[in-house]
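Hi R.,

Here's the chain you asked about this morning:
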Amino acid sequence: MCGIYGITAKDEAFIENYITTCSHRGPDGQGIWSDDSVTLGHNLLAITETNTQSQQPWKTPKGNILIYNGEIFNYFELLDKYPNFLPKTTCDTELLAWGLDEHGIDFVQQIDSMHAFAYYVIQDKKIYLSRDHAGIKPLHYAEISEGIVFGSEIKGMLDKVPNARKVDPMALSCFSMSGVNVTRNTFFTNIKKVLAGETLVYNLANNTLTSHNREIIFPHASESVDLEEFRSQMHNTVKMCAIGKRQIGVFLSGGIDSTMVAYELNKVQPPAWTFTNWINPKPKADEDFNSDHMAAGVLAKDNSFNHTTVEITPDIYHAYWQHAAYQIEQPVYSSNLPMYSYMNKFLSERGVVVTMAGDMGDELFGGYPKYYRINKKLNHRQTVELWMQRIKRPMNLPDATIKMGDIVDELMSTVFTANIFNNQDALASYMAMDQIGLCPEEFFNRNDRYGMAYSMEGRFPLATKKFMTYCNNIRTDIKMQGNEYKTKSLPRDAYRGHMSAAVINKEKTGWTAPALFWRKQNMDKKLMETRYNQMFNQQTHNIQGLQQNAKSMIPGMITNVWATKYNMRI
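And here is the predicted structure, written out as tokens:
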């Protein structure tokens, strides 16, 4: 896994600084290429090849330039498909470079990958910016006086972009209402995201940026399911994601999604290295913070995993608060960022270079209780409006000028467009919105930032193109034969008799810690309120919504820490 950076100018000093700022993304090498119009840079984390064989920027067979961050999981299938491709390495960058030259940018539709890349066609004076179908790998860009600047992380481009340290009102409003910013805008004014599955093209001849294509896995929801076939699909997607020569570690939460990943990886590369956390001390004896740890222990013992339990204490939590807010590059509606940061550091220190997790399982299999209450007959706009109301207690913003309807309009024209809407089943569409909205901006972004902070690549077997297509062709009524108190009946039924009943029947719990309790121990309420209000430049302590719901204090505080770290202004 790597970092990619570029600017449409001859500016090697800027790209060199960008590479240095994001050196955590690739400790195994770096490279810069430039001509009179473009400068491209790359940090390398070698996974499948040595650093010398994988070095980028990569000159393609036709003399174009590629910088690439990702993995092509159907690499060997494509080798069989194209016998005229004669690789000199086993590096998937070489395959991608050849495919783009031979078949054009639409070769992206043939790869099952997680990726972000820039492909510079020198003769045409065009740069293609592409992001994978699920938005696993990040790619940001901004239009500037020189043309465009782009990169894997935002922190290295801030000083190039006018007004970037001013908080974007659309992003902040979407976040405050829904708990996650899924708009094209980032929280940094004038810096945007390449959307999940999107390919943009920048024409240096006329300084225009246009959308070439967007490939997303939209819901058909029309097929039945065979449980043996489901297990086979699950095994194959894990096997496909297990490519490479570096040690894999699985985040084993004890839930059914990560359990399936660990169980199948153990067949492919035994013994599976698994990691789960336990909370010490718990604030109350009856609070359920360690049931995942106990379930994971049962599974690990039954299957002879190489299992490690990671202790999370208040001291650890507080120590990683600042680092977590900085690396994530945006406010997040979660109190557990320090825990994620520490867990990734722990795995890295024990030799893990590739991680696997069960993220997207809830969104594919119907894991959220709210899914059972959604009217399948809603129209497109009603479904997007309902999605925007996904959290019970949104944050209150003073003097908010952007309303719910404005954000709905924006999302319907960009992210949640009509081609993902299933007219027969609004629930399937809602779940697809979670897949291409919630997952990239919360789960995948979190994993990328905290994994790459310690030079680790994160993979998600449930989010491969093949597996997502398979799952989205299963009718929602088949996926959700349980109820909102017993979700994800399909994977539970598929693995019943193959795993311990204690794991199969375990109720869903979030991977969490008593963050609010610990945080309040470390900081009195008055100070919490003051810091939140400082973020929004208020003169009074008018936080009625927050006082009614203590959970809202945490995202408010994260927003403040992020804003302080990046010297942001409203």
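One quick note: The two ends are 34 Å apart (CA to CA).

Cheers,
M.
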